Amino acid sequence: MANRLSQIATRTGDDGTTGLGDNSRVSKDSGRPHAMGDVDELNSHIGLLLCEPLPQGVRELLVDVQHQLFNLGGELSIPGFALLKDDALLQLDEALALYNATLPRLQEFILPAGTRAAAQAHVCRTVARRAERAVVALGAAEPLRDAPRRYLNRLSDLLFVLARVLNRVDGGDDVYWKSERLARQGGEPT
Fold this sequence. Notes:
The chain is mostly helical. It has 6 helices and 2 strands, in the order E-E-H-H-H-H-H-H. Strands 1-2 form a two-stranded antiparallel sheet. Helix 1 packs antiparallel against helix 4 and helix 4 packs antiparallel against helix 5 (146-167). Helices cover 58% and strands 3% of the residues.
């Protein structure tokens, strides 16, 4: 593994390349830096979500997710290296089961809206989906373990569920899409 950064402005990337954890250099426009960047952006958005008032269990879960995303980014930065552990995916599955159990069935599609925390969770969800697409593309171009792709897929599901949970913290609800089909049928959610 490469040494930790002791200096940020190295100027080595001025030529359009970036260093990977195995000391190789690749174009900043190649698949690996794209995937790493999307995971980094997701982690930053989760950091922003953590600035909101959150239930303690959600806060603790998201802090751990940030650490797992750092592991995932580290794995992406070192070709052939495994850093994300199986228990990280298990934690997401358990959280999905726990929080899904508290929610009513969806009546219709919901909008990425509601409370500020819920809306930010939806932003995190969409960035997780983008990161997942970047990891899928990387895996199609070069060997990559399944764990990063599976983790991001499950995390985006969890972020959707957490957005619904966060909309209910103070007695709120999901913000439903006003479906023309339901309106014609007289079944518009209230």
